[in-house]
Amino acid sequence: MKKQTTAALYRTKLNQLETQLTLENQAYFADLRGYMSFGGLFLDEGELNMQLYQMATDLLEAQRDGVTAAAFFGKQPQRLADQLLANTKKASGPALFGLAAVVVGILWGINLVTAFSQNGVLRVSVPQYLLDGVIGVVGVSLLFLILQRSFYSAKKSQLSFVRRVIPAIAVFLLVIAGQLATGLLLIDDGVIRIPYPWDLLLLGVIVISLLTWLLLKGAALYPFVFLVLGVALLGLIHRLQVAEVLQGTVWSVSQGVILVVTLGAAFVSYRWGKRKD
Fold first, then answer.
1. How far is 79 from 93, CA to CA, in rounded Å?
2. Verdict on whether the full-model pTM lies above 0.90
3. If 0-12 CB within 10 Å is exposed, 13-18 middle and 19+ buried, where does residue 61 land?
């Protein structure tokens, strides 16, 4: 059985078990699960979920005997979670690479969408893209660390909530600022120019790769298929306009129509998926 399949299987079972816990035990276990999940960014997801599932199973058995989660797991859940995380197997190299690839792919996709919407020959700055990838991976790692530490910080006053939210927002803004800075400072460094029709070939490769990945990940990500197709059509029309293959105001108007239809299809797909669940 593949690791990701194992992780998804135990995640589903874990969600079902949690609904059988009392409200008090649910609150305790939700913090424990959240702390371990965010702290397990670089750990084997399948083993981590399996461990959480076993803990929920044991807690449910104890609950039937009238034992609370605090009595069963102890008054120091953070220390317990840290010990369990320390003994959990680390994620494999390919899994870590895949995680980084998702983050980097999203950031590069944003950059490419911006590039495709510009006039003239398509320009890709290699140093900018590489640095954007590093900033994105570091930013996500910091964000997970902040979110993990928020579970057992002094809570639950309004002041403590602000102290937990502000660092997360600060990291998010720093990542955006880093993306903007690299775009301004490195836009003319290490530039690869991709003329027509090679720009359309690149667009096709990106779209096919994204669609394949989304379809393989399952129905939960199907709404993004419409977004990818919509962005691809917009990019295609714009690059053909730049190459003067398409002319006239009708194509400018059609871009707005495509955007509206794409967003509408994505929303309907999302709602339909939620209804089936």
1. 28
2. no
3. exposed
Q: What is the per-residue pLDDT across 202-260, written as a single tens digit (0 to 9) for each?
A: 888 888 887 787 777 666 666 677 777 777 777 777 778 777 777 766 666 566 666 66
Q: Minimum mean pLDDT among 6-20, 121-135, 150-164: which range?
A: 150-164
CA distance between the termini of the chain? 24
Distance CA 52, CA 10 (A): 8
Q: Which residues of 189-205 are buried (b: 16+ CB within 10 A; e: fewer)?
A: eeeeebeeeebbebbee
Note whether 17 and 33 are within 8 A (CB): no
Instruction: Assess whether the previous peptide bond of 276 is cis (omega < 30° from 0).
Output: no
- Tell me the residue type at 166: I
Helix-helix angle 93-116:222-242, to 10 degrees: 40
Query: Whose structure tokens read 């959480």?
Result: 52
Dist CA 271 CA 277 (whole Å):
10
